[in-house]
Amino acid sequence: MKIKKILAGAVMMLAVLSVGCASKNTTSEKKHEIVIGVTSDQYNELFDKAVAPILKKDGYKIKRVNFSQFMQSNTALAEGTIDVNVAQHTAYMKIFNRDKKTDLVPLVTTPSVPCSLYSSKYRNKSDLKDGMTVGIPQDPSNAARAYAILADAGWIKVKSDVKRTELSKKDITSNPRHLEIKEMDSDTIPRVLSDLDFEVIPGSNVYSAKIQDKIHLIQQENLQKDLQIVAAVKKKNVNTDWAQAIKKAYQSKEFEDYMKKHNSDHQWVMPK
């Protein structure tokens, strides 16, 4: 009789422990804090103002980790020390994945500010003269955008069989105005405006350098799908509750209404 009671007690104890473990595992599966990698640009500001409030209503806490350079944010995302970042386009991500052997994927396409041709000295394309200097970004994805913009402006001709997102200096087939095209770090271009006649600058760099009032728009980018900004996550996290909550927030009516109210100057290009 004693043995039966002992066995019954042991079975009950195991059942309690089993339920407790199951409860613990279920709880741990639900993530309530989203860690976002932040750099100084308008995409993170848009997230803070229009997306974070929606996520907070859904019960999520937002933790921000600051990075001085975006590549650091991508490295942290790949390593899993942050959950998401919002400041890159798919073309850049593909190159990063290829070079770093990572598995980042786009979660949702967000509003984007185009990379465009500007000048702090001139106001029109007609001001172009032979031998002028044009500064453009040196990283491959943004350099490709710059060459496409210069081709759209009619200043150079490029190979027609090369994708616009893959253009490089070697794909220039004609430079009739003998332009001196200087590739440099995107962060450097706003600091050397006086040394350049024209410059191609990504929208995020214009914002972070606060040079909107110092430059004139010459030619706006024809934004390709691969160049639209995305929220990025690791591949394994795409279908998690928190990732889908971010996606839902960007695609919500509340977010759409915010953009209608705060995009009267059409600075933002909405997802296609």
UniProtKB/TrEMBL annotation:
<keyword id="KW-0732">Signal</keyword>
<keyword id="KW-0472">Membrane</keyword>
<keyword id="KW-0564">Palmitate</keyword>
<dbReference type="Pfam" id="PF03180">
    <property type="entry name" value="Lipoprotein_9"/>
</dbReference>
<comment type="similarity">
    <text>Belongs to the NlpA lipoprotein family.</text>
</comment>
<protein>
    <submittedName>
        <fullName>Lipoprotein</fullName>
    </submittedName>
</protein>
<dbReference type="InterPro" id="IPR004872">
    <property type="entry name" value="Lipoprotein_NlpA"/>
</dbReference>
<keyword id="KW-0449">Lipoprotein</keyword>
<dbReference type="GO" id="GO:0016020">
    <property type="term" value="C:membrane"/>
</dbReference>
<feature type="signal peptide">
    <location>
        <begin position="1"/>
        <end position="21"/>
    </location>
</feature>
